[in-house]
């Protein structure tokens, strides 16, 4: 089965049945996109937990030719999946988190999924908490962000240095853009299909983690309903983060650019 049952009537985002259930309780009609680079030791666990938590959900692993064999392992897991709900997209080289997600979104939008989800492979995002993101989608939200920085959100074992970097990046983005999102860099989120069809993915330039800010900002500017639900973010136990200096520089420069552009637009409108 390449895509979910298209006979099921999902809600039409923006339409009259806006509050009708989009995603079934078992996750059917939703696609989780998981970008991977050297996540061989994490992948089977995260797929198993997803299947346990949401037995109807589809998953797309987007692997950038990981040298540790993650891509081949994903192929094996997909071949073993009797329900054909696990899919794999191979890219030829490591090209950043943002580019991997764009490829995954393109794959999902070419099929009939109503909701497309972002999730890390390393266990930082708990599949068991995905239900609360999907509940907010069913409640009418267009983009739901699993947030570490709203009441109820938690960080477990994240190094203090990473926490302050992340909090600093969020404060900087909030001040520069004026977007009222507490965790705009978060990578655990659920998009209604209509959002991704609307926000001009073809013009996205951000390649690294700044991609998260970019897409949330585009979604806010397009007037969609963006909500945050608290999550517990747990530091990976296996493997390494791919965060580096280039990722931070890209985010700093791009957010400054978007902030100036948005202020200019507001001034011109006055
Ligand atoms: N295909 C592909 N996947 C990648 C690449 N870079 C990272 N990934 C994958 O993207 C996920 C997140 O990467 P990590 O390196 O584990 O992220 P982190 O440092 O823990 O960062 C977390 O915090 C960021 C800042 O808040 C978040 O933006 C990010 O999503 C994540 O939650 C992992 O599944 C990792 O394998 C890449 O170039 N290509």
UniProtKB/TrEMBL annotation:
Keywords: Glycosyltransferase, Transferase
Reaction catalysis annotation: a di-trans,poly-cis-dolichyl phosphate + GDP-alpha-D-mannose = a di-trans,poly-cis-dolichyl beta-D-mannosyl phosphate + GDP
UniProt-recorded Gene Ontology molecular function terms: dolichyl-phosphate beta-D-mannosyltransferase activity
InterPro entries referenced in this protein's UniProt entry, alphabetically: DPM1-like, Glyco_trans_2-like, Nucleotide-diphossugar_trans
GO annotation, biological process: glycolipid biosynthetic process
Residue ranges annotated for the Glycosyltransferase 2-like domain, each copy included: 32-199
Class in the EC hierarchy, top level: transferase
GO CC annotation terms, alphabetical: membrane
EC number: 2.4.1.83
Pfam families assigned to the protein according to its UniProt record, in alphabetical order: Glycos_transf_2
Regions annotated as coiled coil: none
Family: Belongs to the glycosyltransferase 2 family.
Name the UniProt record assigns to this protein: dolichyl-phosphate beta-D-mannosyltransferase
Source lineage: Bacteria, Bacillati, Actinomycetota, Actinomycetes, Mycobacteriales
